[in-house]
Amino acid sequence: MEHVTLNNGVKMPMIGFGVFQVNDQKECQQAVETAIEVGYRSIDTAASYMNEEAVGQAVKASGVKREELFVTTKLWVQDHEYDDTLRAFDTSMAKLGLDYLDLWLIHKPYGNYYAAWRAMERLYKEGRIRAIGVTSFSNDRLLDLALHNEIRPAVNQIETHPFFVQESANAFMKKEGIQHEAWAPFAEGHNDIFRNPVLTEIAKAHGKTVGQVILRWHIQRGVVVIPKTVHRERMVENISVFDFSLNAAEMTRISALDMGHSAAYDDQDPENTRWIGTMKIHE
Questions:
Q1: Full-prediction pTM beyond 0.90?
Q2: Per the residue annotation, which of 40, 49, 113, 124 is the catalytic one?
Q3: pLDDT digit string (tens) for 115-131?
Q4: What share of the chain is helix, strand, coil (3-state, %, to 5)?
Q5: Which of 13, 41, 181, 266 has the fewest CB atoms inside 10 Å of its own CB, making it the most exposed?
Q6: Does 113 participate in catalysis according to the annotation?
Q7: 141-163 pLDDT per residue, tens
Q8: Which domains are assigned to the chain?
């Protein structure tokens, strides 16, 4: 496994295991246990995924030393006030059954996320979190947050895949020393990505699968990935991408698939903002 070093010196695996939409608790726990068994050491969940407890049970059952694992969860918009953030952290930690967290992210850039960030800074200084960051922040919001707070975000997790390359965001984060992490690295299967002719041709040339080519493309751009699957064979496939490289022409061809917008949803649509900004995950 290759690692990146975050702006505070913490090392983070280049490939993690995502559990978004793995809603069944038993299935989630089994999937995470299997992922750890086949070699994953980074697990990404969120309060809004409603599976933190299953992830925690899997981590406990794995038998792997805590310091060998990198666990990420996320704070939901509902809890962006300062005291709410502190309570939400304690809730997530209780569900995960952990003494400390490796990475905590603000899940969406809505509500009073400045208050949330300052509560996160406090927890970071207390040694309860090794690194703090954000999710789905545009370049301008990310820079604004970095400029007006004591601790700069270590990570920004944004939708990134061959149909939404995020070249500007990638360059900006490299310049600012903030790690680019991809959610939906496979575009959530949109646009028939696994049968795309360009990706299929490149995969055939390397004797790899389309999924492996996509993950390799991310990694060579310096982007951390968190692919999701509940199938053991795909877990093994997704983590087996460090034995080949794409050449410059192949990288360019893949990036040329860029549509310049999300394959999942339009974050500029006010109705999406209303939906995310008012969604509650607890009473």
A1: yes
A2: 49
A3: 999 999 999 999 999 99
A4: 50, 15, 35
A5: 266
A6: no
A7: 999 999 999 999 999 999 999 99
A8: 3-278 (3.20.20.100)
